[in-house]
Design brief:
Order of helices and strands: HHHHH
Structural class: mainly alpha
Low-confidence stretches: 1-8, 111-116
Distance between the termini: 34 Å
Oligomer: single chain
Number of domains: 1
Shape: globular
Mean pLDDT: 77
Radius of gyration: 16 Å
Largest sheet: none
Length: 116
């Protein structure tokens, strides 16, 4: 029995397959991470608008596509990244590191690298 099961959580799947929330394969064609490319190419305001728009998109339609948990997780992914983009590490270092730790934990939980 795994530690997760002992704590009352669901057992980890034997083969999780592709991570459609944090690292879908179609977001990294030819080894280029589209998410990071967009962040590099957009200004800060445009990138935050992109993140906010995706939060709204996934929350507003999570009941409609047949994958509600996946869509809510996608909304959370974008909301967490939006929070991280808006915090100033010099003015709010404790919050910055709390968000950083949360992002790292989420990435480790899903077995992918963070996108910050």
């Amino acid at each position: 029995m795994s530690a997760r099961e002992k704590k009352g959580g669901a057992p980890a799947p034997a083969s999780a397959g592709p991570d459609m929330v944090n690292n879908p394969s179609h977001y990294s064609p030819n080894g280029v991470d589209t998410f990071m490319h967009m962040k590099d190419q957009m200004g800060a305001d445009a990138f935050c608008g992109f993140l906010q728009g995706n939060v709204v998109k996934y929350v507003s339609r999570y009941r409609l596509k047949g994958t509600p948990t996946q869509d809510v997780c996608k909304a959370a992914f974008y909301l967490l990244h939006l929070a991280f983009e808006t915090v100033d590490p010099c003015d709010q270092p404790a919050l910055y590191w709390k968000l950083r730790k949360t992002m790292d934990h989420a990435a480790a939980h899903y077995g992918v690298e963070g996108k910050s």
